[in-house]
Amino acid sequence: xxxxxxxxxxxxxxxxxxxxxxxxxxxxxxxxxxxxxxxxxxxxxxxxxxxxxxxxxxxxxxxxxxxxxxxxxxxxxxxxxxxxxxxxxxxxxxxxxxxxxxxxxxxxxxxxxxxxxxxxxxxxxxxxxxxxxxxxx
Length: 137
Known about the structure:
By secondary structure, this protein is mainly beta. It has one helix at about 1-5, and strands at about 10-15, 20-25, 40-50, 55-65, 70-75, 85, 90-100, 105-115, 120-130. Strands 4, 5, 6, 8 and 9 form a 5-stranded antiparallel beta sheet that branches. The chain has a 4-stranded antiparallel beta sheet with strand order 1-2-3-7, with no helix packed on it. The longest helix is centred in the first third of the chain and has 6 residues, at about 1-5. The protein is elongated. The model has no long low-confidence stretch (mean pLDDT about 95).
Protein backbone atom coordinates (compact mmCIF):
# COMPACT_ATOMS: atom_id res chain seq x y z
CA UNK A 1 0.00 0.00 0.00
CA UNK A 2 2.78 2.56 0.49
CA UNK A 3 3.03 3.00 -3.29
CA UNK A 4 -0.72 3.39 -3.72
CA UNK A 5 -1.00 5.72 -0.74
CA UNK A 6 1.69 8.07 -2.02
CA UNK A 7 -0.19 8.33 -5.35
CA UNK A 8 -3.58 9.09 -3.81
CA UNK A 9 -4.81 12.48 -2.72
CA UNK A 10 -7.65 13.44 -0.39
CA UNK A 11 -10.05 13.79 -3.35
CA UNK A 12 -11.68 11.11 -5.47
CA UNK A 13 -14.14 11.23 -8.35
CA UNK A 14 -15.86 8.30 -10.06
CA UNK A 15 -18.66 8.06 -12.61
CA UNK A 16 -20.54 4.76 -12.88
CA UNK A 17 -23.86 4.25 -14.71
CA UNK A 18 -24.40 8.02 -14.89
CA UNK A 19 -23.99 8.49 -11.14
CA UNK A 20 -20.98 10.58 -10.03
CA UNK A 21 -19.44 10.12 -6.56
CA UNK A 22 -17.02 12.81 -5.38
CA UNK A 23 -15.21 12.58 -2.04
CA UNK A 24 -13.06 15.02 -0.10
CA UNK A 25 -11.30 13.85 3.09
CA UNK A 26 -9.50 15.79 5.81
CA UNK A 27 -7.72 14.98 9.03
CA UNK A 28 -9.70 15.88 12.16
CA UNK A 29 -7.14 16.83 14.85
CA UNK A 30 -9.86 17.89 17.31
CA UNK A 31 -11.20 14.31 17.40
CA UNK A 32 -7.89 12.46 17.18
CA UNK A 33 -5.71 11.10 19.98
CA UNK A 34 -2.38 10.13 18.39
CA UNK A 35 -0.88 9.11 21.74
CA UNK A 36 -3.65 6.49 21.96
CA UNK A 37 -3.13 5.46 18.30
CA UNK A 38 -6.38 7.06 17.14
CA UNK A 39 -6.43 9.30 14.08
CA UNK A 40 -9.83 10.50 12.94
CA UNK A 41 -10.64 11.61 9.40
CA UNK A 42 -13.73 13.38 8.15
CA UNK A 43 -14.94 12.84 4.61
CA UNK A 44 -17.64 14.59 2.62
CA UNK A 45 -19.38 12.81 -0.24
CA UNK A 46 -21.47 14.28 -3.04
CA UNK A 47 -23.51 11.84 -5.14
CA UNK A 48 -24.96 13.31 -8.35
CA UNK A 49 -27.41 11.64 -10.71
CA UNK A 50 -26.21 12.61 -14.18
CA UNK A 51 -28.57 10.18 -15.91
CA UNK A 52 -32.10 10.48 -17.27
CA UNK A 53 -33.74 8.13 -14.73
CA UNK A 54 -34.41 8.54 -11.00
CA UNK A 55 -32.19 6.38 -8.77
CA UNK A 56 -32.12 5.58 -5.05
CA UNK A 57 -29.13 4.76 -2.85
CA UNK A 58 -29.89 1.46 -1.09
CA UNK A 59 -26.70 0.48 0.74
CA UNK A 60 -23.00 1.19 1.20
CA UNK A 61 -19.86 -0.96 1.24
CA UNK A 62 -16.65 0.74 2.37
CA UNK A 63 -13.20 -0.86 2.38
CA UNK A 64 -10.87 0.93 4.80
CA UNK A 65 -7.16 0.08 4.91
CA UNK A 66 -4.64 1.48 7.38
CA UNK A 67 -0.87 1.92 6.95
CA UNK A 68 -0.22 -1.64 8.22
CA UNK A 69 -2.57 -2.94 5.50
CA UNK A 70 -5.18 -3.96 8.04
CA UNK A 71 -8.51 -3.87 6.23
CA UNK A 72 -11.98 -3.27 7.64
CA UNK A 73 -15.18 -3.55 5.64
CA UNK A 74 -18.24 -1.51 6.58
CA UNK A 75 -21.59 -2.51 5.06
CA UNK A 76 -25.04 -1.23 5.82
CA UNK A 77 -28.24 0.32 4.57
CA UNK A 78 -28.09 3.84 3.20
CA UNK A 79 -25.74 6.59 4.35
CA UNK A 80 -26.03 8.67 7.54
CA UNK A 81 -29.42 7.04 8.22
CA UNK A 82 -30.86 7.93 4.81
CA UNK A 83 -31.55 6.20 1.51
CA UNK A 84 -31.76 9.26 -0.73
CA UNK A 85 -33.67 9.27 -4.01
CA UNK A 86 -32.09 11.36 -6.75
CA UNK A 87 -34.04 12.61 -9.74
CA UNK A 88 -32.04 13.45 -12.88
CA UNK A 89 -29.64 16.29 -12.11
CA UNK A 90 -30.07 16.07 -8.32
CA UNK A 91 -27.25 15.67 -5.78
CA UNK A 92 -27.06 14.41 -2.21
CA UNK A 93 -24.21 15.53 0.04
CA UNK A 94 -23.24 14.18 3.45
CA UNK A 95 -20.29 14.06 5.82
CA UNK A 96 -19.10 11.23 8.02
CA UNK A 97 -15.89 10.16 9.74
CA UNK A 98 -13.46 7.28 9.96
CA UNK A 99 -11.08 6.41 12.83
CA UNK A 100 -7.76 4.72 12.05
CA UNK A 101 -5.07 3.20 14.27
CA UNK A 102 -2.38 4.71 12.00
CA UNK A 103 -1.87 8.29 10.74
CA UNK A 104 -2.60 7.29 7.14
CA UNK A 105 -4.72 4.90 5.15
CA UNK A 106 -7.13 4.63 2.25
CA UNK A 107 -10.85 4.23 1.66
CA UNK A 108 -12.86 3.09 -1.35
CA UNK A 109 -16.01 1.13 -1.99
CA UNK A 110 -19.40 0.98 -3.66
CA UNK A 111 -22.95 2.15 -3.20
CA UNK A 112 -25.76 -0.14 -4.29
CA UNK A 113 -28.38 1.80 -6.19
CA UNK A 114 -31.91 0.99 -7.33
CA UNK A 115 -33.00 2.17 -10.74
CA UNK A 116 -36.33 2.13 -12.56
CA UNK A 117 -38.39 -0.97 -11.88
CA UNK A 118 -36.21 -1.87 -8.89
CA UNK A 119 -33.17 -2.90 -10.93
CA UNK A 120 -30.03 -2.92 -8.74
CA UNK A 121 -26.52 -1.84 -9.69
CA UNK A 122 -23.31 -0.82 -7.93
CA UNK A 123 -21.56 2.50 -8.37
CA UNK A 124 -17.89 2.97 -7.55
CA UNK A 125 -16.37 5.14 -4.84
CA UNK A 126 -12.84 5.75 -6.12
CA UNK A 127 -9.93 5.33 -3.67
CA UNK A 128 -8.84 8.34 -1.66
CA UNK A 129 -6.15 8.91 0.95
CA UNK A 130 -6.53 9.52 4.65
CA UNK A 131 -3.38 11.35 5.76
CA UNK A 132 -2.58 13.22 8.94
CA UNK A 133 -0.27 16.22 8.38
CA UNK A 134 3.46 15.82 8.98
CA UNK A 135 3.24 12.14 8.08
CA UNK A 136 6.25 10.68 6.30
CA UNK A 137 5.23 8.23 3.61
